[in-house]
């Protein structure tokens, strides 16, 4: 499956809506999209993961890179609408304590 990435901007917030799977094949495309956004000083980047069906450790690596860039450029990276399956990756790796995560969807498939 592919990854669809839709970027929009509302009220100085970059919204990135993802749909599909984040894995070794789709992660480079995602990284190319979010890193430039997080490297804008003071920017807020909200990544909507509601329609992400699957994510592996490669996806986690992309988000870690984005978070590092956000801290370096004093911007914010916020993850929203994580389904249980994706949220568990952040939970078992301890990354839920590092990321700002809003609106976890319980029981999502």
From TrEMBL:
Entry-linked Gene3D superfamilies: STAS domain (3.30.750.24)
Residue intervals of the STAS domain: 3-109
Keyword Glycoprotein: no
InterPro entries associated with the record: Anti-sigma_ant (IPR003658), STAS_dom (IPR002645), STAS_dom_sf (IPR036513)
Keywords, ordered alphabetically: Phosphoprotein
Recorded superkingdom: Bacteria
Listed GO MF terms: anti-sigma factor antagonist activity
NCBIfam families in alphabetical order: ant_ant_sig
Function: Positive regulator of sigma-B activity. Non-phosphorylated RsbV binds to RsbW, preventing its association with sigma-B. When phosphorylated, releases RsbW, which is then free to complex with and inactivate sigma-B.
Family: Belongs to the anti-sigma-factor antagonist family.
Designated name of the protein: Anti-sigma factor antagonist
